[in-house]
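Intended use. Records like the one below are meant for learning the mapping from a protein sequence to its folded structure. Do not use them to infer anything beyond what is encoded.
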Amino acid sequence: MSLCMMKKNHETVIALVVLLFLGIVKPLQARSLLEQINWKGADTGIVIWMTITCITIFAVLMVFYLRMRLKIHQDKREFSESLLNDYFKKSELTEHEILRLRQIAAHGNITDINAIFQSIAIFEIGIEKEIELLNGKKLSSKEMIDECMILSNIRKKLGYNYLPFEHPIVSTRNIEIGQKISLLCGSNKSTSYRALVIMNFEPYLRIQIERGMEDVPAFHPGHQVAIAFARQGDGLYAIEMRVLSFDKDSQIVELQHTREMKRNQLRQFVRIEVNLPLKIRILQAVSDDDKLLVGKQFEGKIVDISGGGLSFILNRPLVPGGLININFQLSTVAFNGQTGKILKVSLIDVKSASMYRHHVSFLDMDTPSREKIIKFVFDKQRQLNQWR
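Structure written out for the chain above:
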């Protein structure tokens, strides 16, 4: 039984008990009874009977109410646990990893462990707290590596080892290996050095300063530096980090992870490649030839999509500037009657047959529909990343 049904049944029970109370009182002629009660010489038996009746009805109401609340709470807990087990199964977590994930949630004060599977931001909160606790235990190097490998495996199985470009990073643990950065030092952060991310482990971010850089200072543990980089299709990041260690010979700097960062967005939407059918109908044409096609319907194939538009392939070219009506479906969500404007058309060759790729921008799309597309793009890339 769903939670909604339980709540409705709860309300129904209360209503029935109230009606039962009214049904008892009405035949007893409530006005006459009240007159006797208010009368100085009212019969003691009637007063006692009425008191017992009211207490009994109130007790029945409370019993039904408490039982229903308990049932709703149990159903909610069972539903949450069932959903969690589904997450465990899909993520292919081992028993030990499940135990560690529960510990991460507890240590991070995450009341709903299901939220970890739905939000990388919540996951990073738990990981950050977990690393703090591990550092406080003063483990040996091997013990620390073993613990962090477990956390890294959990991250990978949850699909958080790599974030798609349309999803901003929420922690320096999300920075990709190979990311080029600028390392800024000095009190005014005016001097910068080119560097490369060579390792991103749960306890630290390891970067290597580019060979040939002159006057590289010694980065002492505890000192604050800043890194800056541009993430393709995402934004510009500036992050203050604390130095953990520095090897002058190899020019390798280890930095403590953080979730505090500044970001300037580069582009609004990121596309993902798909292979989905769509139907279009010409709404408005800009050339005399295309005007004959107004109102006609064609079938094509979507090859990429984003929250701002899509590209589709058709076996005939349409003229840029024209307006079309688009119908397509993403997973279980249907998008019907969406208006689009053709921005660009290019010729492609598919097995010796002439095909044309049309780049379309959505016009006047409502926010809920756009968010559904963005969510589809994110979910799709996250799913693909889990297979990497």
